[in-house]
Amino acid sequence: MDYRTIGYAVEAGIATVTLSRPEKLNAFSYAMIDEVLDALDRIDADDDVRAAIFTGAGRAFSAGTDISDGTAVFTRDDERDALRNPDGSFAYGVEAARDGGGLIALRLFRCLKPVIAAINGPAVGIGATITLAMDIRLASEEAGIGFVFARRGIVPEAASAYFLPRIVGISQALDWCYSGKLVPAGEARAAGLVKAVHAPDELLPAARAISREIADRTAPVAIALIRQMLWRGLGYDHPMEAHRVDSRGILARGCSADVAEGVAAFLEKRPARFADRVSTDMPDFFPWWSEPSYR
Q1: Three-state secondary structure readout of the chain
Q2: How confident is the model at residue 56 (pLDDT cuts 50, 70, 90)?
Q3: Can you name the residues that pair with 146 across neighbouring β-strands?
Q4: Which residues contact 72 (CB under 8 A, 6 or more apart)?
Q5: pLDDT digits over 62-96, tens only?
Q6: C-alpha–C-alpha distance, residues 139 and 150, integer Å
Q7: What is the C-alpha to C-alpha distance for residues 51 and 72, in angstroms, rounded to an integer?
Q8: What is the pTM of this model?
Q9: For position 72, what pLDDT does the model report?
Q10: Tens of pLDDT along 210-246?
């Protein structure tokens, strides 16, 4: 895909995705949604990519959905007929009814590489909610995060009713969503929404430092499994569900060349050279879940 609304670059094992409509404060269009989804597919498919950073071009991370054309933005022009049943009622179960932010959040949820949000400026609406499915959020001192949906007469999307309360707790999530206020970076950090706040010129270097630690010191297959184990563990009803997956992981990876290399590197006091790759060496019990359908 030729990208028109995002930038995509890979350097030394780190992919950087830059939301790039600075004249619109990186507001989301359907083209941007499609391009972000494509970039996430590229990140997972490229064994040379060990971690990914999302940031914004110019002074904003993202101003949310591009509403410059009014409410028409909430449906694609070529799919509007599919959203109605013959009797005129909404066809809620069709693919065309799915919200774009949710498509991104669910794709992030399935991602096999660590994803870091470098929130360089205002992150509002979908610009805020898509970061919830990323693993680590860093913010610039100039950033503000807004779950502004109630102020526009609409509801939060991007599966944020799942993610946000798990990150900051239900009371804080409701406070921010009820008020729709722009949350300063310091308040977001105090609530645990962002890991750290940085001066603007230190934000990307901080994100790269975290990514570098992952790329240089860890095993790609182990990281892919850990990411899915922890995210999917949020929905478990009993620790036995985690124990089943843990046990499979310990058995399968314990017999792998990566673990032999990791132990040898530790004993020999040298950096490990992990050879297993996500594209070819995931264990046979992966995936251990059934993906639910939208309907």
Answers
A1: CCCCCEEEEEECCEEEEEECCHHHCCCECHHHHHHHHHHHHHHHHCCCCCEEEEEECCCCCECCECCCCHHHHHCCHHHHHHHECCCCCECCCCHHHCCHHHHHHHHHHHCCCCEEEEECCCEECHHHHHHHHCCEEEEECCCEEECCHHHHCCCCCCCHHHHHHHHHCHHHHHHHHHHCCEEEHHHHHHCCCCCEEECHHHHHHHHHHHHHHHHHHCCHHHHHHHHHHHHHHCCCCCHHHHHHHHHHHHHHHHCCHHHHHHHHHHHCCCCCCCCCCHHHHCCCCCCCCCCCCCC
A2: very high
A3: 124, 182
A4: none
A5: 999 998 766 556 777 777 888 999 999 999 999 99
A6: 24
A7: 35
A8: 0.95
A9: 56
A10: 999 999 999 999 999 999 999 999 999 999 999 999 9
Question: What six digits make up the tokens of 250?
Answer: 């310990």
In whole angstroms, what is the distance from residue 134 CA to residue 114 CA? 8
**Tokens encoding 245:** 């997956």
